[in-house]
């Protein structure tokens, strides 16, 4: 999931800090999320997906 | 999300208890999840999706 968030963010040319601010997520927390080091809650996934204007399911790799 | 989990579970004629056991989730916790009373972690969403043989994104309504 973290890798998809990072890829999507980069494709939209948004910095990690900007995405964190847009999603209302702590900046250091966002770093851990992108590195796959956090088991985030679904509500956080929704906030990040909304900030990236993507369906949340698209950020999940399974 | 809870409603989708419930709908999917019912369409597969699986009881809430059986789904909880299959997903390795506490039975009472599953009840709260289905009623939308829990902000579950993505890992829990994956466990439930795997038990229902569905892509996790399909259980997310947005």
Automatic annotation (TrEMBL), chains A, B:
Q: Does the keyword DNA-binding apply?
A: yes
Q: SMART domains, alphabetically?
A: HTH_XRE
Describe the location of the HTH cro/C1-type domain by residue ranges. 5-59
The keyword DNA-binding appears for this protein:
yes
Q: Which UniProt keywords apply?
A: DNA-binding
What Pfam families does the entry give? HTH_3
List, alphabetically, the CDD domains matched. HTH_XRE (cd00093)
What domain of life is recorded for the organism?
A: Bacteria
Cellular component per GO, a single term: cytosol
Q: Name one GO molecular function term.
A: DNA binding
Q: What is this protein called?
A: XRE family transcriptional regulator
